[in-house]
Write a structure and sequence with these properties.
heterodimer, A: 4-stranded parallel sheet, B: about 60 residues, 3-stranded antiparallel sheet, 5 strands, globular
Chain lengths: ~280, ~60
């Protein structure tokens, strides 16, 4: 079996996937997308039984995955999964439709409606961009004045997406959230991301610690993973003091360096081995 | 055992250890000036480092 690895930069994750595939006896074809040409008209493309999509740039991940799927190559994750999981609004809709518990969330397109909706949710509220990662441009509004200021700032930004106001209840979590990994219907490992800051992203300094995968967490993460189309996903879970476990986000090109470092779990081999099984079926 | 070669940092000229199995696009940090660097193979086929691309708004998960 031949495995392609589509990437723009090589970090711990990409290198460990290449090494895991080699150690499992597979031939690996690294596909450096920024050094490649993707001709669309005629069938062409890498000779791979499947491709692991690892571009850190979402735009490159989507574009190159569209090309691979146009050439009937199996990609992890699929184009639809990458597209849906990168958009918090679409993800929230898919999760809600599947009955996955999530924080109370509303989308509005004006300051007046944002204020009305926030009164219904109750302050503080979190304002998020519908796309974006690593905790960028998230804001927490404690009252009507701060929400009004945040919305004004967003409405003056040139990016039209910033005029889609995605508001969410603030979950008073216990100085941590959970990043659990969904791999083809299994939840092999999870970590806590611990931080005194309300944004617990490890990119912002959150510290990783092992988290037990309880039956409750496993069931929730499987439901969330299947709601967005399955494959290999990172599912972020909040522990609400009043509502229990809530799925906050789902990530389609998941980072796992800190998970491997603190748990010792060989997630790269799990991803390669389980994807190969799925492709062989 | 993978060998390591030393490649000059394009920012400060310090030596950066790069494993023999490095792939184009692999990221390194200069131990002397902390520059974030990307490994590439130059037109003559030689191993080189350049300053890595800035993190963009659509990066990450």
């Amino acid at each position: 079996m031949r495995i392609g690895l589509a990437y723009d930069v090589i970090r711990f994750e990409e290198k460990s996937l290449v090494n895991a595939a080699s150690n499992l006896g597979y031939a690996v074809e690294p596909i450096h997308v920024t050094r490649s040409e993707f001709w669309l008209n005629e069938p062409n493309g890498p000779k791979a039984d499947f491709i692991i999509q690892r571009c850190v740039s979402h735009s490159r991940a989507l574009a190159s995955t569209a090309f691979f799927e146009r050439n009937n190559i199996f990609v992890v994750n699929r184009l639809s999964v990458l597209r849906d999981s990168a958009d918090k609004l679409i993800t929230s809709c898919l999760l809600a439709k599947a009955g996955v518990p999530t924080p109370s969330t509303v989308v509005v397109f004006s300051r007046e409606k944002a204020l009305e909706a926030a009164r219904k949710i109750g302050f503080p509220v979190v304002v998020k961009p519908v796309s974006g990662s690593w905790g960028r441009n998230l804001a927490r509004a404690y009252d009507e004045q701060s929400l009004s200021d945040i919305i004004e700032l967003r409405e003056n930004m040139p990016n039209p997406q910033m005029k889609v106001h995605y508001l969410q209840e603030y979950v008073d979590k216990p100085e941590r959230d959970i990043r659990a990994f969904y791999v083809w219907g299994d939840v092999p490992v999870a970590i806590y991301r611990v931080s005194k800051m309300w944004k617990t992203n490890t990119a912002l300094g959150g510290k990783a610690q092992p988290c037990p995968v309880t039956d409750e967490l496993r069931e929730l993460v499987i439901k969330a993973g299947e709601a967005v189309g399955g494959g290999v996903l990172g599912v972020d879970v909040l522990e609400s003091p009043t509502k229990g476990l809530l799925v906050n986000e789902v990530n389609g090109v998941v980072e796992f360096r800190n998970t491997v470092l603190v748990t010792g779990y060989d997630l790269p081999s799990k991803i390669i081995a389980d994807t190969a099984k799925v492709v062989r079926r | 055992m993978v060998g390591v070669r030393e490649i000059p940092c394009p920012v400060c000229g310090g030596k950066v250890g790069v494993a023999d199995d490095a792939l184009p696009g692999e990221l390194f940090e200069c131990g002397e000036c902390s520059a974030r660097l990307e490994y590439f193979v130059d037109e003559k086929g030689g191993p080189s480092l350049k300053v890595a691309e800035e993190v963009a708004e659509d990066w990450g998960q």
